Every structure is written in structure tokens, then in C-alpha cells.
Amino acid sequence: EKHLVLLRDGRTLIGFLRSIDQFANLVLHQTVERIHVGKKYGDIPRGIFVVRGENVVLLGEIDLEKESDTPLQQVSIEEILEEQRVEQQAKQESEKLKVQALKERGLSVPRADTLDEY
């Protein structure tokens, strides 16, 4: 069965589920990493993929009959990676402006990489 897996880091994998255990550890075969940007998407072939259960956010079966009924446009890997890079840069600029505006008002936001997880 073809499945979609959403990972904790935000990546989306699509592949054939070959194995799963009680910890939700997965083995996916003929896996592709799907990148979405706006109304476009691109698939990067990844082959056999082993995923630790702690990284799985969502696992769902894909209906093969409805798979092609998508309003999204498939583009090349290079094009989707470039659009993803542009989107991430815009997001970083927006975040910088937000932090700057907060600083001007006397507020500070701790950076996510400096926060203690526990």
C-alpha cells in the first residue's frame, strides 16, 4: 500500500510501506520526498527509507484512484528547490523584521535554537 508520512521536521515522504513495528518505526520502499511550495510540488527520489517512530507525525494511506486528482502542478526538482529556497529567504526576512519591531518596542524574543527543550 502506498502511504504518505509527515515527519516531525516538516518533510513529507511518499512510498510503499514495507514494515512497521510497535514503536511506529517504518520502512518505506520506492520513497519520494515531496516538497510543496504554493500550488506547485516536486518529488525527489529517495529509494528505501527507514524512519524512526519518534519522528512520525502522521501516517496515512493514499487512495491510488484519487492520487492524480490534485489541483497542484508538478514541476522539476530544480525548480521546486529554487522556489523553496526563495520562500525560506522571505520567511527569514519576515522574521528579522518582526524581531526588529519587537526590539524597538522594548521586547525580546528568545531564539528557538537557544531554548532548553526540558
From TrEMBL:
The keyword Nucleotide-binding does not apply. CDD domains: LSm1. InterPro entries: Lsm1, LSM_dom_sf, PTHR15588, Sm, Sm_dom_euk/arc. One of its GO terms (biological process) is mRNA processing. GO terms for cellular component: Lsm1-7-Pat1 complex; nucleus; P-body; ribonucleoprotein complex. Its main location: cytoplasm. The keyword Ligase does not apply. Probably involved with other LSm subunits in the general process of degradation of mRNAs. Interacts with SLBP; interaction with SLBP occurs when histone mRNA is being rapidly degraded during the S phase. LSm subunits form a heteromer with a donut shape. Belongs to the snRNP Sm proteins family. PANTHER family: LSM1 (PTHR15588), U6 SNRNA-ASSOCIATED SM-LIKE PROTEIN LSM1 (PTHR15588:SF8). This is U6 snRNA-associated Sm-like protein LSm1. It comes from Ficedula albicollis (Collared flycatcher). The lineage of its organism: Eukaryota, Metazoa, Chordata, Craniata, Vertebrata. The gene is LSM1.
